[in-house]
Amino acid sequence: MQPTVTSHSCNAAGVLQGELQSGTRRKHLQRSSQTSRPPGHLHLLDQDYLGQAAFMLSKVGTWNFDIFLFDRLTNGNSLVTLVIHLFNISGLIHHFQLDVVKLHRFLSMVQEDYHSQNPYHNAIHAADVTQAMYCYLKEPKLAEHLSPLDVFLGLMAAAAHDVDHPGVNQPFLIKTRHHLASLYQNTSVLESHHWRSTVGMLRESGLLTHLPADVTQDVEQQLGSLILATDISRQNEFLLTFREHLDHQDLDLQLAEHRHFILQIALKCADVCNPCRIWKLSRQWSERVCEEFYRQGDLEKRFDLEISPLCDQQADSVSAIQIGFISYIVEPLFEEWQRFTEPSLLSRTMMDHLNHNKTCWSRIRSPNESRGRTSKDGKYMK
């Protein structure tokens, strides 16, 4: 059943769409006025900052990588700087004969199309997910089987998986009849938009024009499959399939389709790995995502719409939301990821952090708080 259209929902959609459109126009103006910067340029940082950023990149495969510090050291260019470095050390630039100027232009477009005003779904989150994905791609159980194309797709999908995120969730877009909900028929609305936006920027940048047409088409389709897998409403679907593969011990990473499935799972893990980071970083991400939820709730109040689950600051505390998120989403997924990667020091480290952080949130939570609400269909809302 389609939601009833009201003047309030139309007004909310109009305000949001106006903001998105003005942001898009502003980005196009920025692109047209930009001059080419040297690839990997750290944008006029002094030598102290440059040295610290370079030192951090030498430790990019470690799990305690502080993406907030790295973003400050790179003057807000963490995504561009990180991905170019990862492409370089992974041999992708050489293997695919990429034009580094075009690569820099593409990544700059992606970084600019993230909304810096979003507390959570911004370019820093994309850089954080990409760094986590790199760590997962290095897991011994996986790394020895990966082709250069697998690594390229994994890092690219991580960098662009939330591009142009409007800072509100899919139910909000649907109930306000946003044009994106209509365009994608209320199904994986945001993820479809992230994918299509990425394809558009790939083509505009000309990054892959030197490759055969069938190769670029395959890259675009596989990027779509990876990005669409981050739809939280498909969590149980992927988790059950993953669990069945592990139970039957029938994963064959010599098969491209099985490697692609594991890349989907790895990206899903990277996307929700915040509770597996050290407490200092994990808590910052938790507060940021809840601030984004609360902003949506305030917008819903403003236009007299029903407040979405987890978006009412008066009823939904950060601690309760995080305990629910860990219990319903993160723990089940990472328990299976640990089964897949064993023996893995990284997986054990992440599970230790996860258990510690859950305990910390439990201590913060007041006794009368619930463990976090779910939507009407029982799915935990991200």
Care to describe what's here?
Belongs to the cyclic nucleotide phosphodiesterase family. PDE7 subfamily. AMP binds at residues 121-125, 162, 271, 322. It holds the Pfam family PDEase_I. Its EC number is 3.1.4.53. Keywords: cAMP, Hydrolase, Metal-binding. The chain is an all-alpha fold. It has a domain at 7-272: 3'5'-cyclic nucleotide phosphodiesterase, catalytic domain (Catalytic domain of cyclic nucleotide phosphodiesterase 4b2b), CATH 1.10.1300.10. Helix content is 65%, strand content 0%. It contains 18 helices and no strands. It has helices at residues 7-33, 47-57, 67-73, 78-89, 92-95, 100-113, 123-137, 140-143, 148-160, 170-175, 179-183, 189-205, 213-228, 235-248, 256-271, 279-302, 318-341, 345-364. Helix 7 (123-137) crosses helix 15.
